[in-house]
Amino acid sequence: MSDPLGELRGELEAAAAELAGASEPTSASELAGTSEPATASEPATASEPANARRPGSLGVRLDRPPKPDLGDYSTNAAMVLAPQLGAQPREIAERLGELLSERLGDQLASTAVAGPGFLNLYMSDAWCRTSLGRMLAAEESFGRAGEDLGYAGAPQQERILIEFVSANPTGPLTVASGRHAAYGDALARILAFSGHRVEREYYVNDHGGQVARLGESIQARARDEEPPEGGYLGDYVRRLAAEIPNAAQAPTEELSRAGVELMAAGARTTLERFGVPFDRFFSERSLHDSGAIENALARLEQLGHVYSADGALWLRSTPFGDDKDRVLRRSSGELTYLAADIAYHEDKRAREVDRVIDVLGADHHGYVERMRAAWSALGGDVARLELPIMQLVNLLEGGQRVAMSKREGEFVTLDDLIDDIGVDAARFFLLQRSHDTAIDLDLALAREQSPENPVYYVQYAHARIASILRRAGEERVRAALAADVAASAEQPHPSARSLLARLLDLPAEVAVAAERRAPHRLAAYGHEVAQAFSAFYRDCRVVGAAEEGGDEDLRLALSVAAERVLSR
Questions:
Q1: pLDDT over 90 at 26, yes or no
Q2: In the predicted model, what is the mean pLDDT of residues 435-451?
Q3: Is the pLDDT score of 406 beyond 60?
Q4: Percent composition of the chain: helix, strand, coil (DSSP 3-state, to 5)
Q5: Strand stretches in 12-72, DSSP E
Q6: Which residues contact 373 (CB under 8 A, 6 or more apart)?
Q7: 222 and 247 in contact (C-beta within 8 Å)?
Q8: Separation of alpha carbons 392 and 474, rounded Å
Q9: How many whole angstroms separate alpha carbon 391 and alpha carbon 400?
Q10: Averaged pLDDT of the chain
Q11: Which of 341, 346, 338 is nearest to 313 (CA)?
């Protein structure tokens, strides 16, 4: 197996199941158990491996205690089993420790019962060295889910369509769009790494009132006039007016199309610069021109999910959980945005993907239930439609928020942000908080080259590893990787054990990030790995390790493993 920590968890669950015997839990609450690891007197609150947050069928968790002297891992299994077995948790923990010792042999050095019934596991040096060897043998596939790679609990592979960014093409991409881009791209990469087939799509809103106002604004600037009320005021409108031939006299509809084409092309260029590729740019206008919207409305009518009232056409969405029915065609004959969105999602359904993820903006809370209702009305499984909502980005400069409004022309573009702090820093800072939490991006901190800047800290750790490996030389590194580190006689230093434990968390961290649609976990994880490597570097000499009684092969191999994980 390529996941040593997953294998340890499997042994723990098997031992717990053996203790439980044939008895079955009587309620879900009995399976929940106590979830925190403990010292001899109080629960631990330190960082835990992601495996700990993925309880198995028995509700058993595997956590990391807050201090090395409390063991490498701790489990709540005895407290989960206590209601079933009718025994005291500490007594069950003792029995579980004996059973694990039999199952794991020399991989487990010792166990200790703590607190009300936690079992702390002290893994042997042999287990640490063998685990490092397995990680290195997996090479670049370490952490990648998939039964063919030997990972337990590999997810069912799905074909997933992720639509993200989809900013109105009436202005340059802003920092807010950059957060959408960073999130969607990272999520797509994580899902693909986890074995899913992922397609990326950008919905171009190239039809409707905002597009018409862009054309009117371009013409006004070409005539050296102020844009009309509700128009666009940014300097980019002047540039569009200068770039489009005969903008002062051309029909505004032509100006709208030309302006949208130029803005969409600029968005593609910015996204490529930001390292965010797309498989498809889908035009809203194509839905109008092809008759797809009318076809979708006709299908809803056949299914009995639309009706006419007050001269308008309505979607009967309340039976599907919406708080009120929604207008599809106004009494004026104008189609609503929802009508186009329904046709767009009917197109998505027709592609027979297994799952659709629409990454929505912070102002789309009311959109969620109506889109779920429309999806259900079309015959879609609402469990296969995900609608995560991104929160806002606040730029801080000198402790003050930078005002942003695309229509008013007061905003910081994604290109501006990249020019200021670079692609890596921009992506990291935009990903370091959960997507449903607002971000305060401190530009001054992002520019700093200091340990306080998390991007710089991670990059510096990676650069330090690269420097160590260069100093050792390619041939020496190859020899270290070819060596049997499992047979090493070195007793790993506590800092080396701590680093290895963090590296072994990668498969579970990726799995949880994929399951929870939470790329921010990997940003935090990368920083924690960098911290663990810095402590290892401080305490353990790598090149020339033999001079202090260490194994240079093992320490070089551990450095390579850390470099591979940070490169992810």
A1: no
A2: 95
A3: no
A4: 55, 15, 35
A5: 62-63
A6: 315, 317, 318, 320, 321, 322, 326
A7: yes
A8: 46
A9: 19
A10: 90
A11: 338
What is the enclosing helix (H) or strand (E) of 420? helix 414-421
- 315 pairs with which residues across the strands? 306, 326
Checking if the pLDDT of 39 tops 90, the result is no
Locate 52 and state its tokens. 């700990």
**Token pair 């663990």 is at which residue?**
532
Percent of all residues in the chain with a pLDDT value above 70, rounded to a whole number: 90
Q: Which long-range contacts (CB under 8 A, 24 or more apart) does 554-557 make?
A: 554/129, 554/132, 554/480, 554/483, 554/485, 554/488, 554/490, 554/492, 555/496, 556/468, 556/469, 556/472, 556/476, 556/477, 556/480, 556/481, 557/132, 557/133, 557/136, 557/480, 557/481, 557/483, 557/485
Residue type, 258: A
Please choose, from the candidates 284, 347, 336, the residue with its C-alpha nearest in 3D space to the C-alpha of residue 325: 336
β-bridge pairing 385-386 and 355-358: parallel
Token readout for 518 is 């939470």
CB contact at 8 A, 38 and 116? yes
- CA–CA gap between residue 63 and residue 114 (Å, rounded): 13
399-434: b (≥16 Cβ within 10 Å) or e:
eeebebebbeeebbbbbebbeebeeebbbbbbbbbb
The DSSP call for residue 174 is B
Of 389, 388, 326, the C-alpha closest to 357 is 388
CB 108 within 8 A of CB 128: no
- Which amino acid, one-letter code, is at 429? F
Residue with tokens 């940003």: 523
Query: Would you tell me how many other CB atoms lie within 10 Å of the CB of residue 109?
Result: 17
In the prediction, which pLDDT does 401 show?
85
Contact 39, 13 (CB under 8 A): no
Beta strands in 319-418 (DSSP E): 326-329, 355-358, 385-386, 393-397, 400-401
Q: Residue 86, CB half-sphere, CA atoms under 13 Å: how many?
A: 4
Q: What is the largest CA-CA distance in the chain?
A: 88
Residue 73, classed as helix, strand or coil, is: strand
The phi and psi torsions of 36 (rounded to 5 degrees) equal -100, 140
CA 223 to chain centre: 47
Spatial separation of the C-alpha atoms in residues 59 and 30, rounded to whole Å: 9
- Distance, first Cα to last Cα, the chain: 21
What are the residues facing 313 on neighbouring strands? 308, 329
Half-sphere exposure of 167 (CA within 13 A, CB side): 26
Burial of 350 (0-12, 13-18, 19+ CB in 10 A): exposed
Burial bucket for residue 272 (CB in 10 Å: 0-12, 13-18, 19+): exposed
Model pTM score = 0.89
